[in-house]
Design a protein that fits this description.
Helix content is 55%, strand content 13%. It contains 8 helices and 4 strands. A 4-stranded antiparallel beta sheet has the order 1-2-4-3, covered by helices on one side. The structure holds protoporphyrin IX containing FE (HEM).
């Protein structure tokens, strides 16, 4: 993944646990600042190694870490560094989710090797389902954190329930959203 993602993990850890804790994670994961250059694309394994080591050093499970990172991504990384894209993509949660793929298409103009996820809403009279498709697995809880962050960003209540899981053999993850 792009160094932007690795750098955001570092920023999230530094903000919440302090620089000395991050330096322990760097040491244990054998990484250094050359591994989080924003516009450089790194193997996904690097990002997953950093996440795994961070869980060990911080003594938290991956669900907690990925959700925390998801919220941080929206409320800090996206809001502070890409506010134009955030503003452009909608002024309420539902509209924003409908435009998410288009937003990543915009991101891909700059990040040309982007392997972006895809999100689609399936709406009926009784429920709203969010389909999350990705060539990667293991990021389901990151998406939950992102959705929590978006709910906070738009100041809208949101309950997220995973109703179909790729880990359990489904084609992709599906979340029920209750606004
Ligand atoms: C405007 C701010 C955003 C920017 C600049 C951005 C950019 C990126 C980048 C660079 C990646 C790494 C992909 C790669 O290296 O191949 C990524 C991944 C991802 N983004 Fe965004 N993104 C933004 C907002 C969002 C939001 C609001 C969501 C909310 C759902 C989201 C969901 C994801 C997910 C789930 C991934 C993980 C990749 C995967 O599932 O395969 N992004 N994004």
């Amino acid at each position: 993944m792009y160094g932007l993602v690795n750098r955001a993990i570092r920023d999230c850890v530094v903000e919440q646990f302090g620089e000395p804790t991050w330096l322990k994670i760097e040491e244990a994961s054998k990484t250094d600042p050359s591994h989080y250059v924003t516009m450089t694309s790194y193997p996904d394994e690097l990002t997953f190694t950093i996440i795994g080591v961070a869980c060990e050093v911080l003594d938290v499970d991956s669900t907690t870490l990925l959700r925390t990172f998801g919220r941080h991504w929206v409320l800090n990384t996206a809001n502070k560094e890409y506010s134009h894209l955030m503003d452009f993509s909608g002024s309420d949660l539902r509209t924003f989710l409908l435009n998410l793929d288009q937003m990543h298409e915009q991101v891909a103009i700059t990040f040309q090797n982007l392997r972006q996820p895809s999100f689609s809403l399936e709406e009926s009279d009784t429920e709203t389902l969010l389909h999350y498709r990705s060539e990667r697995s293991g990021l389901t809880e990151f998406v939950v954190g992102l959705l929590d962050g978006l709910a906070e960003h738009f100041n809208e209540p949101l309950k997220v329930t995973l109703v179909s899981s790729r880990l359990e053999g489904a084609d992709h993850d599906v979340f029920r959203l209750q606004f």
